[in-house]
Design a protein that fits this description.
171 residues; 2 domains; 69% helix; mainly alpha; flat
Amino acid sequence: MKESNMARADFVTSIFLTPFGLFILIVSLNMPRFEEHNVNPYSVPGILPAFLGAIITFLGLVLFIRSIRQRGYKLGIGKRAVIGFFRDQSSRRIFLTLIISLLYGLVFLGRIPFYLATGLFVFAFVLIFEYQFKESFASQRKKVLIALIMSILVSGIVTAVFRYVFLVNLP
């Protein structure tokens, strides 16, 4: 991205980051605190997400103020700019990432076992961004094998860490 476009990119990014951080903060503060079980207040489930939400909100505001000072609010959005945005390869990758992540979080989690959902997510993610659809499958078997190995390892490690280290019952 050109340096001249950074202020505009920062402005748009801050508009998404600040409410997102606030949403995380509010939702995590409403998580159960298990006070009736005399749980240590520093081990409640919402403390880390609340902390991260506060940081995202703060940094979103800093980004917003900085972009305003650099006149990033002058977006100059026109038909040509919008078409260019949707044709840009990095925009496509962002949308693909968003779609895969939403599919994982809203469709798979809670409906199929966590380890399977996570394995499918990692496998799909690696394949979508590494596999060259214009090349033959035979020349890319190694990429598919690596994606499979990564999905099994990541799924197993993440599941084990949540289950045995954090003592979280996974769906």
